[in-house]
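The protein record passed on for reference:
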Amino acid sequence: MFNIERWQEIFEAIAKNKLRTFLTGVSVASGIFILVILLGAGKGLQNGIERQFENDANGLISFWSGTTTKEYKGLNPGRRIQFRNSDFDASVQKFDDKLEIKSANFIFWNGVMAYGKETGNYRYIGVYPDYQAVENAKVVEGRFINDNDLIHSEKVTVIGQKVKLDLFKDKNPIGEQLVISGINFKVVGIFTDPAGEREESRVYLPFTTTQKAFGVGDKISNLDFTLKKKDTYEEALAQSNKFTKELSLLLKSKNMIAPEDDGAIGINNSIENAKQFYDLNLYIRLFFWWVGICTIIAGVVGVSNIMLIIVKERTKEIGIRKALGASPISIVGMILHESVFITTIAGFVGLLASLLLLELVGPQIKSDYFLNPEVDFSVALTTLVILVVAGAIAGFFPAYRAAKIKPIVALRDE
């Protein structure tokens, strides 16, 4: 029930001690402010990590060749391993029933490309059709590399948006001839990539054409795979770990590599990496919660101390109230009411200030691993509950002490 006299008492008490009330509110507001900012930062880290994994296919597992570090069957360490078409064919043949995406590529890290008077240096890669899914590339005009291009070793190319802007300007490049390292290729598509300009500075060619046109024989740079989906993350992780182990052993056997030589073949398992990143993000967010809660506790202790001082100052008043018949519960309600009011108002100010800061500053932060720091509705509700609970805790002990005051002792208080 609304009690206007109770509210009048609260505002009178605040008016008498403006500075003390203000400093108490600042301690609570700063606690909520720090908590929400830290939680927003944690969300920003999570968004950044998720964005990184959106750059490539979900569950991507990549293999590349390295240098042996162990002697094996009379062969000295230090041998440079080179993957070849037979490695990819054997991999697909053995694991085809488990694979969803399968692609090999050969990478030229830098090559001169020309259209008319415009030239530039870009990376060009021979790929399979599935490589579009590997890179999460989106074709905005034309098409991607297809099976017919591979079968007939067609001299066609799909270029990134940045290559298009650099060399073709405002002209539509579809059907035009692009000279790549002295060889003409017909542009059949333009793609964009969620990773931005770095990926869009690439040019894709049919894998078979690349091997024949540029004299690399049957060499392969990387093998890329994704596995068929599982119902849970744990099942997907177990499946990917088993696959990487078995395929690694197969590739080592074909290339005369010691089974225990982990340096000869590089492996990147994005599912395993995702677990590490998300675990790290979880620990960071838990730490942020801990720091924020500790800050709020410090504010609550400050409020509680202030309420103890208020109880001390109003000891005689409380004694008179009890002598006139005020119940202990009404005394407790009076103190709690004031405590919850101060804490809640201050907390809302801190909450609104933190949300405003995230809204204004968050979009201005540009980082690969930090994106759009924000606090969702459930977190806002959680902080609201924290405000009310903090106010109640801050006022409980002073209120309990006030309720235990004996009228005769209170009336003697100076």
